[in-house]
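User: I'm writing a tutorial on reading structure tokens. Could you give me a worked example: one chain, its sequence, then its tokens, then a sentence or two explaining what the tokens reveal?
Assistant: Sure. Here is the example chain.
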Amino acid sequence: MPLWCQDEAGPYQAIPQPGASWQPEGEPARQPHEYIRGGTAKLLTLFRPATGAVRAKPVERATNAVLHPWLMDELGQILAELPPLPAGGEAGTAGPGLEWREWGCSEAILARLAAPPPIRLVLVWDNLAGHKSEAIVQWCVEQGILLLYTPIGGSWLNMAESVQRILVRRALAGQHPQSVAELLEWLAATVRGWNEAPTAFVWGGKRRERRRRARARRHAAGGSGGYTRRPIARRRRSLLDRALNGHVHVN
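And here are its predicted structure tokens:
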């Protein structure tokens, strides 16, 4: 069963952005000293970690009137691309009724449906008020989309945030967009470039192994929070010194 993540990144201002830039050596990028607000942009994102596919749309604002129609259109396309359900709708999917309730689906919404459809897709998103709007939640249930909300303070569990950080850094780091139109175009171009060679995401993976090896190379300093890059040499006491302190018996 496919799993997608959804998030809204931003807002990003049309001002000089921090980060490295591709300037010739000895000719650093010069930014204006005036602070001029050139407008902001946001990035609506749907991300499938298993394949790395990104469906994203840069927008000037992400109100429910903008977010919900876009979500319904994109999710509808994703569902249309899924293989048809087998006869009976059980194989390869979670069944209706009890399974929905086990995942915490609203009883009020389930009561309105004579027979809830099989679950065809899982969507992870944040605990925002707009994500809990009754209209969008009911539409998702009717389409067989199971909604999973990240816990409060745990939005980092949403992998869409991980890919957004990569996309935004590629699009804006070290740049100076002059207008919202440039922000929108640069973000859209970066998304197109990502989808030409998408990267699948997994929990842990090689990055976790690199961090584990890095921790193993560190040496704790006396049980405190500090550490050293190399072990601290211990003073080796002489045999006579140890004997005088009762650690060695001399015949």
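What the tokens reveal: The radius of gyration is 27 Å. The mean pLDDT is 81.
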